[in-house]
Structure formats: structure tokens, C-alpha cells
């Protein structure tokens, strides 16, 4: 386990313990037993366990040697068991926990029982037995829910969130953590709130949702500040620095890391100070500051040597090797990497061994010797990469692609380059994405696939330009700061010159001084007024723009927002369309979903328009939780909404429509009079573009209108239903745009289009009966030699329990 993981685990362990609390029936009088004879209560003993586990074990054992009731002795054992767990003495901790649990069950003490079971879960979690930990924490949650132990409900949900994160279940983790956050607000406990916010931020960070992660970590900082706990703030600060570093914002990462370093120094945490020096060295290296980086490396190495920490020394050697590589000192770099690899192998640190292997391979590639690099890259196999973080997997793919390209193994090089490109885009790493596509460009050129090479080169240039723009913004900020310093220096020189002249003519100096002061005062006042006016005008303009593009009730986008957003997306969709034709990417489509609330007028008539507004707001929030970050939900007017889903095929669209329909049908909408209201919705969806052709902005409105017609058909026949159009390989967009529902039904049975519905679609005989009963006109497409009728295409029919009339 690396140092960062140990810090995260320690913070989680604090949360697993929670606030000090007594069992159901402890002794009301203080318990004596300290060596000094000073009385100490059970609550004080638990608080001591959080601060000093060693002292807790000493004082707890002294207490156990004195006459105590069974309940008091069990409480002491829980506190001492907690301290043993923090010191890694798991067998002793488990024995005391089991003894305390037996007392709780014999005396029917639910509070003591939940404390003991919670500690069993903490032991299982700390030892990596996550499935067992899940069972224990569910037991604690059941007891806490039964007896309304609010603090234990917070702990249980937060613990389950940590377990599900470790098991790779982010959805379940988020669900439990948000419940823990809600309970912590009710409890008004800033410490628990802060820890839960950190765990939420880690989930978002794991899934590359960096803005959400930063918001959660900043919330945690505010909570820890409210709890007056400076030491706890190092955890969100450290994660904020990691997020900035992942985004390539090294200046922001350095500023945050310096704050963390100052806190560790104030609290004299030697291991943390050494680790902080190592992190600062890495950031200084990334900012091309060699001397500062070397200074931090020397401090980190000295700290780890004093602590006899071989793993920390190996980390310092790895960073020293990276620094040597940056300055083309290849032999020195390989020497550092080999020393680090030896230390990691002795400590059985697999991820660290992988980093060392990759560093050595990269040094051989920089010397244009791919065969030697391959001998190290082969050791980075699937078993090695199984539990490696995504950044190490990305680096491995890039190095293997470079090595295979130099060796002329183009097919293998293409495979690894494409894998690296996909992973870099997922992690939003601009520099690595540009490197991946540049490698693909070189590979395609050698394969004489010039069209693919053109698109890969264009994509690489795009990422390079984005990275250059980001660097340019940083440089501009530095230039502005330097300019301000130069202006201040010039003003200082002028003041000194004025002082010399004043020695020659005191009267003239007095006048100039007063004139300069008055001028500066007027300029400052004018500058402040201008700044205030500019700020106010920009704020108002932004507010007006937001109001014009967003619905004031639901805060969703409106038609104007949709038009603006689609104008940005159309070029991206065209590029995806061309890339799909060149077989670089898999198919990626966009679907329009028209959503309408059934019998919404009855809500307004029966409960009033304020209740209808509340239903619309709750509906928008409910749907937003079901969507991805890339999807857009807008309010078209009244009870009608439009959902735009990206990168989804027709079967995914059908599943999403059924998911929205089912969740809305099962949801109880609460209005002002606290009366639950059940309401359903109907949906119609259609793809864009409607057929296999280049996306055209002029075809957006017809696609939306077609989804609206499909919605009308679902509402007219069923309600609480959905109907959608899938792929169409034989129809053109304009034919689909002009087709009515009966024509689409007929085309479905000729296998010309795909329709998906929550209810059984009409059979061919029913369509012919409707045509005979109608105008008698035959669809112009029915004259084709159609194949035999296909079976009705349905997806997940609605259960009767979900339907409402």
C-alpha cells in the first residue's frame, strides 16, 4: 500500500469509528485506574483512542484490572480494540471485540452491539475483506435504523460507500454517501460532513469528473474549518493538488501542495513532511525548476533515511531518475531506476515496480534502442497491469506503441496506440492524447493508409492546440504579473528621483508630492469605479444571458439554449460521422427524446398551478439524476421536455426511455400540502441524423418533429408509454421526415425501418384494417416488393402495476 493510500485509509478509519459514544447502560460515575489515580470516563478513553492509540492501550488495560461492571468493561474493550486495530494488531483487536459483542447480546444493549459490529466491519475493511465488511456494516445500519441512532446511520452509510468504492461499484457508493451526507446535515456534525465530502470527491475523481471532485473537496475543507480541525484539511488539499496535476494545472497544484506542506510541518509529522517534499519535487520538476526540485528531493531522502523507510527512499530514487531524464542524463537515470526497482522488489510494491520498469524502458527508447526497451516492457504484462492505476496503463500503452513502431511491428503498434488514445481521452489528458494520435499518424503513414493518417494528424493537432492555449493562458498571467512588477519598479525609481530633486528645492518637492498624491488618489478612485462598473456590467450580462437561455422554474435550458448547444455539437457530430466512416471509431449516434407528462392538466385543476409547478421541478430533478453528464434535458414549454442523448444506439435509447418511464411512474411527487401525487409520462424518440448520411443542421427540426409525432402516437394509444424510431438503411432522411405513423408501421413489417415500443406494435393485418377504414389511400412505399412481415419489435413491455389510466 503506498503512502497516499495509507493516508486515505487512516481518514476512513476515523470515520469508521465516528464520534465517541457510550453504550446503553454505562456507569454514570468516573472510572479510576490510571497510574496517577486521576478519574477517567469511558467517553474520555474513546476520545484518547482517536488521538493516541498507545496511551489508550495502557490506560484501558489499567482500567480492566480494576473492578468494573460487565457493561463498563465491554466499553473499555471496544476502545482498546479500536486502538489495537490502528496499530495493526488485528488478532488482539478481534478478540476484545468478540468479548464486547457477547456482553452486548447477553444484556440486550443495542448501542454497545452496534459499536462492536461496526468495529468488526472496520477490521474486515482494513484487512481488505470488503465483502465481509459489507455484511457487518449492513448489520450496523439495520440496528441504527431500528433505534434511530443518527450518528451510527451516518457512519454505516459512509462505511458502505467506502466498501462499494473499493469493490468498484460507484453507483452504490454514491447512493450511500449521499445518504450519509444528508444524515450528517441533520446531525449538524461538520467532521462527519467533511469526511463524507472527501469520499464523494474520491468517487468523482476515480471517474474523471474533476469539476465535481473539486467541488466536493472544497466543501470538505469548509467543513473541517468549521470543525476547527486543521490536520484533517491535508486530505482534501492533497486530493485537490492531485486533480490539478492530472489536469496539467501545475501552478495551482503547487500552491495547494505548499499549503499541505505547511500544515504537516506545523504538526511535526516527519513521514508526512518527507512525503510532501517528494510531491513538491515532482511539481517543481514539471515546472522545469531543476534546482528547487533537487532541493526538495534531498530533504525527502534525508527524512526517509531518518525514519528508515526503504519504500520512501525508493520513491525518491524514482523521482531523481525522472529529473535526470528531463536533462538527458540517461545513465544516471537508469542507475536511479535500477536502485528503486531493487528496493520495491524487496518490499513487494507491484505498482512501484511497474513504474520503475517503464522508466527504464523509456530511457532506452530515448537512446533509440527499442530491443533493450522491449525486454523491460515484456515484464509489464496483463498480470502486472491488472490492478494498476489508469495513468500507468496509459504510459505502458504509449511506450509499447513507440517501441513496436521503431521495431517495424506496425499492427501491434497500432493496437497499443489506439488503446492509449482512448484512455487519454477518457482521462482528459491533452498531452498524452496528442502523443497517441501522433503515433497513429506515423503508423498509418508507414501502412500507406493516408486518409487515416490525415484524420489522426488532424486530431493530434487539435489536442496540441488545446494544450498550447492552456499554456498560453498561464504564460499571459505570468507576463501580466511581471509587467505589474516592472511598473511598480519604475514608479519607485521616479519617487527616488523626486526625492533627490526635493533636496535641491524643498518648495518644489512639496508641490510635486502633493500633486502626485492627488493624481494617484484620483486615478485609484477612477480605477475602482471603472472596475466596479465593468464587473457589474459583466455580471448583469451573464445573468441576462442565463435567464434568456434557461427556464426560470426548472432551471433547465430552453429552446434558445438548445439551439446554441446544438450549433456547437453539429461540427463535432460531423467529425464523428467522418471518423466512423474511416473505421477508426465505433458507431456513435445522437437521439432526441420528446417527453410529455400525462394528464398534467388534471394536476393543475385539482391541486392548483403551484402544485403543477412543483411537479415540473421535481420531474426535472428526477430525470436529471438518471442522465449522464453528456446528455441535455431542456424544457420546451408547459409539461413538454426534450432530452438529447449522445453516443447511444437505438437499443440504448429504448432502455433509457423505459428507465425514465418506469422511474417516473413509481415516483411519488410531493406538493405543498404534503400530499403525494402519482403521475406518468409518455416519450417518443428519433435518431439524428435520421438516415445514414452526413449530419445536416437543417435536419435537426424534422428529427425533433418526428420524435414529437411518435410521442403523440404513444399518448394517443396508451399513455405511460414510449415509441421510438431506430435505424433505417433504405429510407432517406426527407422520406422519414414526411412519413406518417401508418407508413412507418408498414415499413417496419417490410424490414425497412426499426421501431421500438413499450407496448406491442400493430400487426400487418391491423395496419391494413386501419388503412381500409381511413382514407383508402395506399402509401407510395407499399408498391415495393416487400419481404415477409417481420415480428413485432418491442422492448420491455410495461407491467400493469406501472400503468395508470
From TrEMBL:
Top-level taxon in the UniProt lineage: Bacteria
One Gene Ontology term of the molecular function aspect: diguanylate cyclase activity
Lineage: Bacteria, Pseudomonadati, Pseudomonadota, Gammaproteobacteria, Alteromonadales
UniProt-listed PANTHER family: DIGUANYLATE CYCLASE DGCN, REGULATORY COMPONENTS OF SENSORY TRANSDUCTION SYSTEM
Signal peptide feature range: 1-23
Name of the protein: diguanylate cyclase
Parts forming coiled coils: 413-440
UniProt xrefs under InterPro entries: Diguanylate_Cyclase, GGDEF_dom, Nucleotide_cyclase, Rev_trsase/Diguanyl_cyclase, TPR-like_helical_dom_sf, TPR_rpt
Stretches the record annotates as Disordered: 755-805
Family annotation (SUPFAM superfamilies): Nucleotide cyclase, TPR-like
EC number, UniProt record: 2.7.7.65
Each TPR repeat, start to end: 314-347
